[in-house]
Amino acid sequence: MTDFMPNRVDERFARMYTAVRDRICTNRYPPGTVLNEAELGAEFGVSRSPIRRVLQKLNYDGLVQTRNGVGSFVAEIDTRTTEELYRLRMKLAELVGELSTPQDLTSHVPVFEALLARARGLSSKPDYDAIGEINVAVTNALLSLIASEPLRELSGLLYFRTARIWHRTIPQLDWAEERGFVISELTEILRALKINDIEGVGFVRRNYIAMAMTRLKRHMAINSDATSGAASPAMKT
Q: In the chain, where does the domain assigned CATH 1.10.10.10 lie?
C-alpha cells in the first residue's frame, strides 16, 4: 500500500499538469488567462494543494506567472528568442539516437498509426483545434520514446514553449501545407519505427522542426514587410 499511494499521487499530478499545460500550449488558455485554483480543483476533484503544485511546475516551465496577492495566470508569449529555441530543439532531436538504449520500437507503431489516421482525417476546411491536439499528441508520443530523462524533460519543455507561438500563428498559415506537413512527418516517423531506427526518428523530428521554424520566419517576414509598407509613405507611392 505504501508503494501504491505515491504512484497514484504522481499519476494524478501528471494527469492534471499535462491537461493544463496542453491547454496553455494550444491557446485554449491564452496569455493573461487567470488560473483559478478553486475552479481547477473542482474540475479535477482535488483540493487546492495539488493544483498549487501543478501551477508551481508550470511557473517553473515559464508558462505561468504567479504573483502574491494576484494569483496565477498564463504568461505572455515571448517571440524574441523563438529562433534560438527552435535551433535548440533541433540539436536535442539529433541526440535522441545517441542517448537512447536499444529498444523494440515496433510496439509504438500502433500509436503513431492511429495519429496518422487522425491527421489524414483532417478535412480541407481548417480545424485548428484538431490539428493542435494532434501535434501535442505526436510530441507526447515521441517523448515517450526518449530513454534519457534529462533529454526527455528538456525536449518537452522547449516544445511547449515554442508550440504556443505555432498555435497562435497557424490560423494565418496555409492550412493545406500545415496539414500536409503533419501527415508527412508521421509517415516518416512510422517508417523509422518499423525498422527500429531510433536515430532516424530523431532526425525526422529534427528536420520537421527546422521546416516549422522556416515557415514561421517566412510568416514573420511577410508581416514585418506589410507593417513597414503600411507605415511608410514612401512604400505607398
A: 4-74
Residues facing residue 72 across a β-bridge: 66
DSSP string, 150-201: HHHHHHHHHHHHHHHHHHHHGGGS-HHHHHHHHHHHHHHHHHHHHTT-HHHH
- pTM (2 d.p.): 0.82
Q: From the first residue on, what is the mean pLDDT of each consecutive set of 10 residues in the chain (237 residues)?
A: 60 92 90 94 93 94 87 88 92 92 88 98 94 93 92 93 89 94 98 95 96 89 62 38
Residues 79 and 59: beta-carbon distance below 8 Å:
no
Fold of 82-230: Four Helix Bundle (Hemerythrin (Met), subunit A) (1.20.120)
Q: Contacts from 186-191 at CB under 8 Å and sequence distance 24+?
A: 186/112, 186/115, 186/116, 186/119, 186/138, 187/116, 189/112, 189/142, 190/109, 190/112, 190/113, 190/116
CATH number of the 4-74 domain: 1.10.10.10
Give the bridge partners for 73, in sequence order: 34, 65
What is the CB neighbour count within 10 angstroms for residue 186?
Answer: 24
Q: How far apart are CA 70 and CA 67, in angstroms?
A: 5
